[in-house]
Design brief:
This is Isocitrate/isopropylmalate dehydrogenase family protein. Keywords: Oxidoreductase. By secondary structure, the chain is of the alpha/beta class. It folds into 2 domains: about 180 residues, Isopropylmalate Dehydrogenase (3-Layer(aba) Sandwich); about 130 residues, Isopropylmalate Dehydrogenase, CATH 3.40.718. The chain contains 11 helices and 12 strands. Strands 2-1-3-12-11-4-5-10-8-9 form a 10-stranded mixed β-sheet, sandwiched between helices. A hairpin with a 4-residue loop joins strand 11 and strand 12. Helix 7 packs parallel to helix 8. The protein is globular. The two termini are about 20 Å apart. The structure holds 1,4-dihydronicotinamide adenine dinucleotide and magnesium ion. 1,4-dihydronicotinamide adenine dinucleotide binds next to loops.
């Protein structure tokens, strides 16, 4: 048994994690969950957004599955997601976006994986505000080492999965310093992978290309803010945030998470779609080298998604969260 930290999260988090737990149990996955929560729920009960017991569990297990977390609005509350990424140097945010049979979208041939730098850039936390002059500075700091790590992660992934092309996305025409550093590192590392086509696009053009001809992209690598925006754009091409997986990966730890939020509007109703979290859990199984289990669950999920009536309301079906999970289990 491999022990994994499970962070149920807030809102619909516990409902979708229960669905994933049921599917894992039915598939006899050799994973033992160690449940430790974070976010609004723990803030209300123990006064901490990220309890020390969770940090200890993460340090011990090094792998986690995480539900969505509500970020309380107000001064002093830093996003739990951003804090976890920076605390454990989870520098790669990996977001696959692939067309699914049964999910109605404008395109039928999208298959890309986005690597977003997860700890630097505009999200470095270097923020200053001059009250007197009313001037705000948000520093988008990049480091050579940080660029090297994310670019290498993208090329290593492309190499391992026989992807033809890696596209770097930047704004080097305007951002002379950051753009030159990121693109320079990309071109240097690309030379080590001569069998993979290295391409680069300026962010604004990239947005247009993605909504016109998304099938031209394979692996995409970019800095934090561009990646945040592009990853949701890519999710929109394949059915939205309810169906795409995400992973935050560092050298020492990996946290797999649904990329949607805690959906307070439907929380507690038992109707949330567990697909995004289940797909993140399948990525986690690959990370744990449990390939057979991953493939079996994925096949059952895809077969269920192919019949929208067996899915939750957001996908046009009539099932609630647990009925959807049972439909997947029946196909294992
Ligand atoms: P949201 O993703 O929670 O909801 C947006 C819309 O999508 C809502 O109508 C919701 O019902 C629907 N939706 C989301 N996930 C769904 C699912 N699995 N099945 C069916 N419908 C689903 O985004 P929103 O409302 O902007 O944020 C709510 C809270 O979540 C905020 O506190 C925000 O900070 C937090 N959040 C947390 C994230 C994380 O932990 N990774 C990511 C995004 C937001
Ligand atoms: Mg985002």
């Amino acid at each position: 048994m491999r022990q994994v930290t499970l962070i149920p999260g807030d809102g619909i988090g516990p409902e979708i994690t229960n669905a994933v737990k049921a599917i894992f149990e039915a598939a006899n996955v050799p994973v033992a969950w160690e449940e430790e929560n974070a976010g609004q729920t723990t803030f209300d009960t123990v006064g901490e957004l990220i309890p020390a017991t969770l940090i200890a569990s993460l340090n011990k297990n090094r792998v986690a599955l995480k539900g969505p977390i509500t970020t309380p609005v107000g001064k002093g509350f830093k996003s739990v997601n951003v804090q976890l990424r920076q605390m454990f140097d989870l520098y790669s945010n990996v977001r696959p976006a692939k067309t699914t049979k049964g999910i109605n979208t404008r395109f039928d041939n999208v298959n890309s994986v986005l690597f977003r730098e997860n700890t630097e850039g505009l999200y470095s936390g270097l923020e200053m505000f001059d009250e007197r002059l009313q001037i705000s500075d948000s520093v988008a700091r990049l480091t050579r080492v940080g660029c090297q790590k994310i670019v290498r992660a993208a090329f290593e992934y492309a190499n391992k999965h026989q992807c033809k092309k890696v596209t770097a996305v930047h704004k080097a025409n305007i951002l002379k310093s950051a753009g030159a550093l990121f693109l320079g590192v990309f071109n240097e590392i690309a030379k080590e992978y001569p069998h993979i086509q290295a391409d680069d696009k300026i962010i604004d053009n990239m947005c247009m290309q993605l909504v016109i001809k998304p099938e031209q992209f394979d692996v995409i690598v970019t800095t934090n803010l561009f990646g945040d925006i592009l990853s949701d754009l890519c999710a929109g091409l394949v059915g939205g945030l309810g169906v795409v997986a995400g992973a935050n990966i560092g050298d020492e730890m990996a946290i797999f998470e649904a990329v949607h939020g805690s959906a307070p509007d439907i929380a507690g109703k038992g109707i949330a779609n567990p697909t995004a979290l289940l797909r993140s859990a399948i990525m986690m199984l690959h990370h744990l080298d449990l390939k057979d289990e991953a493939n079996r669950i994925e096949a059952a999920l895809e077969a269920t998604l192919a019949n929208p009536e067996e899915c939750t309301g957001d996908l046009g079906g009539k099932a609630n969260t647990m009925e959807f999970a049972k439909n997947i289990i029946s196909k294992l």
